[in-house]
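Exam revision sheet. Question 4 asks you to relate a sequence to its structure. Input first:
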Amino acid sequence: MTAQSLPAAESLARYELRFRSLFHTGRALAFPCDREGSVAWDRMTEGARANFLRLCPVSSQQPQTQSIIENQEALMDRCDAQSLNTVLMQANTDGTVNVNDQLPEHCSGAASQTVRYVGTPGQGGHWVDAGEIAATR
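Answer key, structure tokens:
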């Protein structure tokens, strides 16, 4: 393999940090990363972030790290359709109400798979749980 073909070959490779369970044979947590081992924090779901932080040796030793983990877990609860409709509601001067169709950044990972925006913003559009859409089909 020549030096010039190496980057192309590496771009096809998949890198991940893998942590095998000490208690459950065959189970592991894996996090996509670059070849240096850096994870894409902004692409991780809130649950994956909390799991990743729990694996850090200092997570049980430093209260600040434990607080970050708890905050990540709390964010997961606020990305359901009902919460999004409440938080993203905007009252108009004419008395009508709109629900913004843009997910908050902290919901872009996990919630993008579990909620959907239906309708048109400004015309009754709102967030619904993905399961509700499947149930109506």
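Marking note for examiners. The longest strand covers residues 16-20.
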